């Protein structure tokens, strides 16, 4: 019998062949969404900026003629593009659960691959690494375009979203790339666990939604807040992402805002006096916290993705007695 | 060259069927000394039987001195089998016996059963 | 190279609470064509998946080509019962995938030969193939990696008789030319008779019979005689009384008395008798009367087996 020649299996051609439809869809999505963002970045931003210039010029009475459509189109397209970028993690999770592992285990093609000379661990490594590279690069590109588009509008288009508005915050930084990778890991794990493509597709999408929800609650607390104090007369004000707000007493203590309203009314003034309140305090994240928040949250999501990947490998090893995965 | 026909329902072991069919071909002159038997690969491709069965049958034929294996060349017939000629005294006797059986009122099945029983009695345990 | 292709020791696999396979012990010498027979759900597929390294055992060990299933992966071919293939690929792409995944072992000519036997259009998508054509492609994938051990789960199940005969011929040629050990399961004994020389009968997750088919047949005798007759010390697998006659399948422990008419059972009779009588004692290698026989090569071992068989039938 001939001794087995040790040659590495050519995994990339196999993987691309098997997941060709996904590759086409992903490329199509990148082209479409990337194109939209470029369109937004260039012509739409210019048109909106021009409309705002017209609007601001004629603010003092009389009939104002400005291109309102350009402003509305800019706003709509920006919002749709942001949501499309935010949908990427869900799409990746659904695909990973449905097609990457779930369907393969459901139809036995995973076992086919394992009996064609690639160990389960190697199979999963390839199945995670190549999509991770493509998803990471693609989502990274979208995020970069989104950020550039947003920056371009910030100084010229008056209705550009603030940095801390939810969709802009997420779609503007690496956090959404991390979420897409977590979606990949969640999908792969769901597929391995459930061994049914449809169930895994749903479970993976739900997992990403849960992760995102947890993140939305946790995000403000991932970095120490800044605190601003303002007088009672002016009302509370803050230039950034609000975390907490209340009253400051004469002793400096922070107490709950009873929600009375303006000091203009006698009742409220009385109430504030009784509480010994001297002003409002606001815990918030200023714009300078954008990167610390993005990067800490990205790190946390990547850790979750790594954990899910680890569990997926453990599960596969336990089920198949694969020595390769043990190491 | 012979082509083997394997009957799985006959109750006769497969290797015995190959031995029998080879001998039959030798008796009928379909195989002559120097002829090559089909290779195990050819037999199993056509019949889907186990290769070891073919080898076992050939070994049996070799043991009886009917064929010889030449390394790397194949299995060849060494000698032919003496046939019982149509006019042999044995055949004449059997012919007469069958006629008497018919006269006695036995039908074909009765005769076949009798013959098989006697055959069993005298040849039981013989490979073929 | 080891002379044992597949060996199980107290092998067990449980799915949730149910044992699919339990206390499974046997040894399959290299070069054999082994039938794994048993009713549906008996544990045949589980055994093959364990041997292919697709499942991890709960208990015991399985040794494949002298090592563990994971290490033997490259040298083992496996075709699952439902012949999984990527439906979106064409036949040619499927075979190219085999070449990609088995560099250094892949026999492209063999793959194309086996696939071409079925008038398969290489450009046809796998999802458009019939059951028989799928089987052909799956077998081509498994055979072209030139395995030393081929594990086939119900390989002939959805083939018409013609394709079945032809593909069995392809498998036998593989065994004849390369000495490939073939293990194939079926719940239809007749399908495998003649092609297999070794039997593993599994019933209810346990091994009931294991060994060379000739040896197993030789170890059993079908007897008939008067209903009041005694079968003495012989191990009775199955006995049935009809009127004044008793027929039984036994494992003789010595010469039979003259009251009994003895004959050799067919493989199917042997299998059915054991499946109908789950309490009949199993006959596995550790209990085989003369295990030395099976070590002396396929043909000679079986030959001595058939000699002892004729002695027993004469007794």
Automatic annotation (TrEMBL), chain A:
Positions of transmembrane segments: 21-42, 77-97, 128-149, 169-191, 198-219, 290-313
Keyword Membrane tagged: yes
Top-level taxon in the UniProt lineage: Bacteria
Keyword field: Membrane, Transmembrane, Transmembrane helix
UniProt protein name: ABC transporter
Provenance organism: Streptomyces dysideae
Automatic annotation (TrEMBL), chain B:
CDD domains: WHTH_GntR (cd07377)
Keywords: DNA-binding, Transcription, Transcription regulation
GO molecular function, one term: DNA-binding transcription factor activity
InterPro entries: Tscrpt_reg_HTH_GntR, WH-like_DNA-bd_sf, WH_DNA-bd_sf
Superkingdom as given in the UniProt entry: Bacteria
Keyword set includes Chaperone: no
Domain HTH gntR-type stretches: 12-80
Record's protein name: GntR family transcriptional regulator
Species of provenance: Streptomyces dysideae
From TrEMBL, chain C:
Signal peptide: none
A single GO molecular function term of this UniProt record: ATP binding
Gene3D superfamilies: P-loop containing nucleotide triphosphate hydrolases (3.40.50.300)
Composition skew (Low complexity), residue ranges: 292-307
UniProt entry keywords in alphabetical sequence: ATP-binding, Nucleotide-binding
Occurrences of domain ABC transporter (ranges): 6-229
Record-linked SMART domains: AAA
InterPro entries, sorted: AAA+_ATPase, ABC_transporter-like_ATP-bd, ABC_transporter-like_CS, P-loop_NTPase
Region (Disordered) location: 277-315
Protein name: ABC transporter ATP-binding protein
Organism from which the protein derives: Streptomyces dysideae
């Amino acid at each position: 019998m001939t001794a087995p020649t040790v040659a590495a299996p050519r995994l990339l051609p196999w993987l691309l062949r098997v997941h060709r439809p996904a590759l086409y869809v992903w490329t199509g999505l990148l082209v479409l969404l990337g194109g939209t963002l470029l369109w937004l970045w260039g012509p739409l931003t210019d048109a909106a900026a021009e409309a705002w210039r017209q609007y601001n010029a004629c603010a003092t009475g009389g009939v104002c003629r400005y291109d309102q459509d350009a402003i509305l189109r800019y706003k709509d397209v920006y919002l749709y593009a942001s949501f499309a970028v935010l949908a990427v993690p869900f799409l990746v999770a659904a695909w990973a659960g449905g097609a990457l592992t779930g369907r393969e285990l459901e139809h036995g093609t995973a076992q086919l691959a394992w009996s064609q000379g690639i160990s389960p661990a190697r199979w999963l490594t390839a199945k995670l690494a190549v999509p991770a590279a493509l998803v990471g690069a693609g989502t990274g590109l979208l995020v970069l375009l989104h950020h550039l588009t947003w920056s371009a509008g910030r100084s010229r288009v008056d209705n550009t979203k603030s940095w801390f508005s939810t969709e802009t915050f997420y779609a503007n930084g690496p956090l959404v790339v991390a979420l897409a990778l977590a979606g990949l890991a969640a999908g792969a794990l769901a597929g391995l666990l459930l061994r049914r493509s449809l169930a895994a597709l749903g479970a993976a999408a739900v997992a990403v939604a849960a992760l995102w929800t947890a993140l939305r609650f946790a995000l403000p607390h991932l970095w120490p807040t800044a605190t601003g104090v303002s007088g009672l007369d002016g009302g509370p004000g803050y230039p950034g992402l609000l975390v907490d707000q209340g009253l400051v007493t004469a002793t400096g203590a922070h107490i709950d805002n009873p929600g009375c309203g303006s000091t203009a009314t006698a009742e409220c003034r009385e109430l504030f006096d009784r509480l010994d309140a001297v002003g409002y305090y606001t815990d918030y994240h200023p714009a300078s916290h954008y990167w610390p928040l993005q990067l800490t949250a990205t790190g946390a999501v990547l850790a979750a993705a790594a954990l899910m990947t680890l569990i997926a490998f453990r599960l596969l090893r336990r089920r198949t007695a694969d020595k390769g995965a043990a190491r | 060259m012979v082509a083997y026909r394997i009957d799985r329902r006959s109750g006769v072991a497969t290797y015995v069927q190959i031995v029998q069919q080879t001998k039959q071909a030798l008796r009928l002159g379909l195989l002559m000394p120097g002829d090559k038997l089909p290779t195990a690969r050819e037999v199993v491709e056509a019949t889907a039987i186990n290769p070891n069965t073919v080898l076992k049958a050939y070994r049996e034929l070799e043991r009886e001195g009917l064929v010889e294996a030449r390394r790397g060349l194949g299995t060849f017939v060494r000698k032919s089998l003496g046939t019982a000629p149509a006019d042999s005294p044995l055949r004449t006797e059997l012919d007469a016996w069958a006629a008497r059986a018919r006269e006695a009122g036995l039908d074909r099945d009765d005769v076949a059963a009798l013959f098989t029983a006697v055959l069993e009695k005298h040849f039981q345990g013989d490979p073929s | 190279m080891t002379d044992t292709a597949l060996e199980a020791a107290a092998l067990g696999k449980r799915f949730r609470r149910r044992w699919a396979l339990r206390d499974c012990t046997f040894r399959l010498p290299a070069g054999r064509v082994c039938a794994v027979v048993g009713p549906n759900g008996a544990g045949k597929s589980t055994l093959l998946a364990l041997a292919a390294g697709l499942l991890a055992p709960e208990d015991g060990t399985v040794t494949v080509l002298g090592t563990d299933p994971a290490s033997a992966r490259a040298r083992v071919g496996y075709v699952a019962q439902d012949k999984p293939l990527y439906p979106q690929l064409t036949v040619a792409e499927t075979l190219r995938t085999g070449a990609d995944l088995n560099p250094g072992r892949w026999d492209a000519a063999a793959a194309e030969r086996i696939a071409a036997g079925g008038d398969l259009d290489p450009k046809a998508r796998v999802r458009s193939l019939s059951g028989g054509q799928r089987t052909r492609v799956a077998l081509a994938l498994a055979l072209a990696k030139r395995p030393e051990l081929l594990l086939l789960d119900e390989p002939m199940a959805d083939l018409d008789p013609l394709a079945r005969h032809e593909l069995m011929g392809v498998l036998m040629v593989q065994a004849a030319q390369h000495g490939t050990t073939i293990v194939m399961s079926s719940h239809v004994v007749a399908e495998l008779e003649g092609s297999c020389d070794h039997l593993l009968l599994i019933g209810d997750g346990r091994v009931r019979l294991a060994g060379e088919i000739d040896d197993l047949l030789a170890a059993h005798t079908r007897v008939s005689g008067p209903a009041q007759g005694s079968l003495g010390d012989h191990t009775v697998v199955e006995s049935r009384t009809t009127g004044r006659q008793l027929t039984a399948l036994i494992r003789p422990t010595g010469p039979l008395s003259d009251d009994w008419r003895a004959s050799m059972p067919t493989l199917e009779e042997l299998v059915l008798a054991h499946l109908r009588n789950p309490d009949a004692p199993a006959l596995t290698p550790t209990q085989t009367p003369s295990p030395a026989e099976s070590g002396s090569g396929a043909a000679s071992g079986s030959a001595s087996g058939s000699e002892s068989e004729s002695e027993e039938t004469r007794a």
